[in-house]
């Protein structure tokens, strides 16, 4: 991706106050009302027993108790600790105005988990697509019941967990973190910085699911969980490559050091 391409930004600040609710599901029309630059929202849905909670897919105003959610944010999932089933799912899809090259691209966002519950969960899934082909998919805080919770895991195109990328318990009840997915030509890594204590960490490099070179769609999903997730400050932008001037400067420095030996 060249640095000339515009960044994709979603901070949800353009939502009218009348469309912000703690209970009524939002729509793609509301999400597209001045919330995003460089993309269009669609398929904002909730299915299964997620609908017996106080929210499924809504825009909520800033809440000081939700770390990182300082302004309007998208709130996905089940917000109450109900006891029935684990088949709930809430989804929102962001289709980019133009395809983004994978190489030298950064995808960052703030994520917050509200009420971890205790049932098995795929957590909060973020999946990149090239058309209808999944390029990569990760989950924040996947868990078993009973069993451990993991910070970040990779999933395959069939929705099955492949491995844990980060085993740190980043997301417990009412905690948030800034997440960054660093995309290269053939692989990616995931970084995090927790809002409590500023703890940071990174994953090892993982290959994409196929040989795709770009992506044009991101699908956000909460599935099989008693938790709800906040999403805010989504930013997709190019990571500048070293300029030729900088490379020449480094070469000159190396030559000087070599002559001094």
Describe the model.
The chain has 261 residues and is mainly β. The protein has one domain (8-260): Jelly Rolls (Sandwich), CATH 2.60.120.200. It has two helices and 17 strands. It has helices spanning 28-31, 244-260, and strands at 8-10, 36-37, 39-47, 57-60, 73-77, 89-101, 105-114, 124-130, 133-143, 149-155, 161-166, 175-183, 187-194, 200-202, 206-207, 214-223, 228-238. Strand 10 and strand 11 (161-166) form a beta hairpin. The model is unreliable at 50-55 (pLDDT under 50). This is PEP-CTERM sorting domain-containing protein. InterPro entries: Ice-binding_C. Residues 238-260 form the Ice-binding protein C-terminal domain.
Question: What can be said about this structure in brief?
Answer:
The chain has two helices and 17 strands. It has 261 residues and is mostly beta strands.
């Amino acid at each position: 991706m060249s640095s000339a391409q515009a960044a994709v930004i979603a901070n949800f600040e353009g939502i009218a106050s009348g469309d912000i609710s703690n209970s009524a599901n939002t729509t793609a029309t509301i999400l597209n009302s001045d919330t995003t630059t460089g993309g269009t929202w669609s398929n904002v849905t909730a299915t299964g027993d997620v609908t017996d909670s106080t929210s499924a897919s809504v825009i909520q105003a800033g809440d000081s108790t939700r770390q990182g959610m300082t302004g309007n944010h998208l709130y996905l999932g089940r917000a109450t600790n109900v006891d029935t089933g684990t088949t709930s799912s809430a989804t929102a899809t962001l289709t980019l105005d133009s395809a983004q090259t994978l190489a030298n691209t950064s995808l960052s966002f703030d994520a917050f988990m509200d009420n971890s519950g205790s049932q098995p969960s795929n957590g909060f899934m973020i999946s990149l697509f090239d058309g209808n082909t999944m390029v990569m998919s990760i989950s924040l805080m996947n868990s078993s019941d009973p069993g451990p919770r993991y910070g970040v895991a990779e999933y395959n195109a069939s929705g099955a967990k492949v491995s844990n990328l980060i085993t740190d318990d980043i997301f417990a009840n009412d905690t948030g973190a800034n997440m960054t997915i660093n995309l290269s030509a053939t692989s990616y890594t995931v970084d995090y910085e927790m809002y409590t204590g500023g703890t940071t960490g990174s994953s090892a490099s993982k290959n994409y699911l196929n040989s795709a070179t770009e992506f044009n769609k991101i699908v956000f999903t909460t599935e099989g969980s008693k938790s709800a997730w906040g999403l805010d400050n989504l930013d997709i932008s190019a990571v500048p490559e070293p300029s030729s001037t900088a490379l020449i400067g480094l070469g000159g420095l190396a030559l000087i050091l070599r002559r001094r030996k």
